[in-house]
Design brief:
The complex is a heterodimer of chains A (about 350) and B (about 600). By secondary structure, chain A is of the alpha/beta class. Chain A has one domain: Rossmann fold. Chain A contains twelve helices and 13 strands. In chain A, the strands form three sheets. Chain A has an eight-stranded mixed sheet with strand order 2-1-3-4-8-7-13-9, with helices on both faces. Chain A has a three-stranded antiparallel sheet with strand order 10-12-11. Chain A has a two-stranded antiparallel sheet with strand order 5-6. Chain A is globular. In chain B, strand 2 and strand 3 form a beta hairpin. In chain B, strands 9-8-10-11-13-12-19 form a seven-stranded mixed sheet, with helices on both faces. A six-stranded mixed sheet of chain B has the order 2-3-1-4-5-6. A five-stranded mixed sheet of chain B has the order 16-18-17-20-21, sandwiched between helices. Chain B is α/β, with parallel strands linked by helices. The chains are: A alpha/beta (about 350), B alpha/beta (about 600). Chains A and B meet through strand 2, helix 3, helix 5, helix 11 and helix 12 of A and helix 1, strand 7, helix 7, strand 9 and helix 9 of B.
Amino acid sequence: MTSITKPAVRHPGLEKNALGLTKRDYEGSMSTLCAGCGHDSVTAALIQAFFELDIPPHRAAKMSGIGCSSKTTAYLLSQSHGFNSVHGRMPSVATGANAANKDLHYIGISGDGDSLSIGLGQLCHAIRRNVNMLYVLENNGVYGLTKGQFSASADIGSTLKGGEPNAQPPIDPVLLALNLGATFVARSFSGDKSQLVPILKAGLLHKGFALIDVISPCVSFNDHDGSTKSYRYTREHHVDIAPVDFVPLQSEISARTEPGATTAVTMHDGSVVRFRRVGEDYDPSDRDAAYGFVRAHQAKGEVVTGLLYIEQSGADMHAVSKTVERPLVELPFDELCPGSAALDDLMSEYR
Amino acid sequence: MVNDFAFKIGTVNGTGSASANGLLMQSIFRMGVPVSGKNIFPSNIQGLPTWYEIRVSEHGYTARPNEIDMVVALNPGTYARDVASIRPGGYLLYDSSWPLDAALARQGINILGVPFGAMCVEAFQGDRPRTLMRNIAYAGALAALLDIDIKVIETLLHEKFARKKALLDSNHKAIRLGYDYAKENFACPLPFHLRHMDATRDYVLLDGNTSAALGCLYAGATVGAWYPITPATSLMEAFKDFCERYRVDADGRRRFCIVQAEDELAAAGIVIGASWAGARAFTSTAGPGISLMQEFIGLAYYADVPAVFFDIQRTGPSTGMPTRTQQADLLSIAYASHGDTKHIALFPANPEECFYMATEAFDIAERFQTPVFVVSDLDIGMNDWMCKRLTWDDNYRPDRGKVLSAEEVAALPKFSRYVDVEGDGIAPRTLPGVHPKGAYFTRGSGHDRHGAYTEDAAAYRDVVDRLAKKLALAAAALPAPEIVTQPNAEIGIVSLGSCHAAVVEALDRLRDQGIACDYLRVRSFPFAASITEFLKSHSHIFVVEQNRDAQLRSLLALETGVARDRMTPVLDYGGLPLTAEHVVRAVTSQTVGAAV
């Protein structure tokens, strides 16, 4: 992946967050994706989310696999460690990093090829382990870097640029995640930053695996009329059915007065996610209902977006493993090595 | 024949013979007599043939026995071959609850019948206890026939079943059934038998996987990732057991994290992610797992990420024979993954070395920021070996390699990940979360010395040339080969790993036959300069290894430039541990009568 460093020019009037950082401090190198790529909008939304949550950039770790989406980890958070690993295998690398140091904010950025074909198994098992991370699946239904083959998320009947229709049923990451017991499942659209940013923020603070499927159109290979992952198609068919407001812990009190909130979910750190009622009654804590809801709208050709399911009580990988509160990387050697006396005693058991 | 013989028990797996065999081994060991056991078991849970070979050697030879003095035949399915394996004049012990099977009636051996089945049916209730106690009963008969100290056996039973009175009683009863019957009916002891020695005082009976797991514990490894696979499973399970014993806080919280992954690819990814984040992490696997991990191994090599892999080799290719041993992963490890790669490998010869090499592996991996393979095998990993008590130096501190602290990063004008600051090919690294200035982008795609993406020829070469230099310089810092010389030896024997036990025995036998051989045991890869010197300074080289294609010889030829045809392969690849006899025969057939 090519990368171009941005000039370090700061406008003195830039807005600062609680850490005194500007949004520029959360940016990365210049994107080399195609002009108009949905992924760049997701990058911008992530930068916004990190900035607004006042996360120190070096306390985040960016994990990715291979593909256009995976390249985007270079385009944000230049002060964070990044790991652009192996195609489809980012979930395992993120699992290992998280096992070692649970205190970082892990964001995994993947695509539909990376997550739903070559890496489907790894995605499934990261969900099952409930690794504490934000997993953004930038979904465009097509292989971009290899110039336009169908991915596993392509809808039946959706066509390639040349007109060839897809015959195989799609793998829907949202339904998959609901099925596998994911504790945070959302879908959004790269073209709707007002929805995407609060969902990303909620996902970042969710204690567990937060999957966000972001429809992110590929302008070069999948934005034509026959595509069901184009800007036009998504704009016309996406239904924001579970809109959220994300209320960080420190501003919760002022937010209480906001009208229209029907459901509030308190996050692990005390922040609150509020679901506004729009038209339909939607319960984001009912897994089966969420599943049925997404399916029912799919049958009508609609793409449901919003925070579709959230469960704050699920134990993440560390809770299940009963690991100590401190990150394993911070444990001093003396607490890990039993020493010579213990070995002498132990040896007597092997006689 | 005192304290120098071997016997073999042939049973069906799943019948509980392991505890009887273990009891026999341990009793002999507690008598102070050197002993080794080889479990030859099927890839199956119940109903297939399994053997246990026990070798008693006052000289301390631990290789698989060259001949079998006695067979305990309890599996009708293998009677014919079990009886055929007894040396002429040897003994057969069989269950005479039934008439002597025609397959057992061999001339030239001594046949002893004990009605184990009938006695146990009478003495015990229920099918399972009867089956289990039949094993203990043959242990009792062997105790009488071989003069295994019955007091030692009884002490062991008391230790084992201290809190299980009923089991203690039934075991005790079963031992006596066999023991008393043999005493009453045969001239005990047999010509080959045991006598107390004092040669095991400083030793333990330990398998290599347990020992390697202890090494990981002592090295401070905190993350283990794995996928169950024979014969590597017991390594991670032992690590888990040790961690639960030594690394759990009073509130039940654990100072370790073990992830049973969905496959070996994920296990490798988890290890690499954890190591990248600053933990000591490892995986235990076997050949099929190594095959699956190839892509990740290349990533760790190219991105300078430490990682420790234990490969407990089994018989390949493909699924092969999962419960048989081999040394056939050498080439696939040395250059694992696509592209130009080379990897550090350590070759323990026994469980003792598994412990020390396990701890060293983490130091080496972190010092050189690269994958390190501890290449063991099923024979070392799963069999109990007599080895020196493991010891630990409390002054040991992990070598974390060049990891920059927050202060060190802050003091830098700018951090660049892959700059060879000290000229040793090792670039200082930073860990995530430590300091914003230390951030960099780890990638398996082409990168320059700053860690930035590149497609530039010179910038690419700069990085891969540094990696080559790093690995070349590493050779001198790895465990040195063991070299044993004899006066005027012109023959040189080169070997590695579990072959060692058979080769040292063969060296003695060859010397007794007037054939003096020098010996070099390879303990690590890339090869030290002393290996090249050894090869060049001997007119006739034998390379002893357990694979079909002479993989070690190929590696030696590739890496040292010594011609392949100057090195005679001595190969054993049927899946059973090597015997000294095999080595002696191979060497003498090439050298006796020929001018060497």
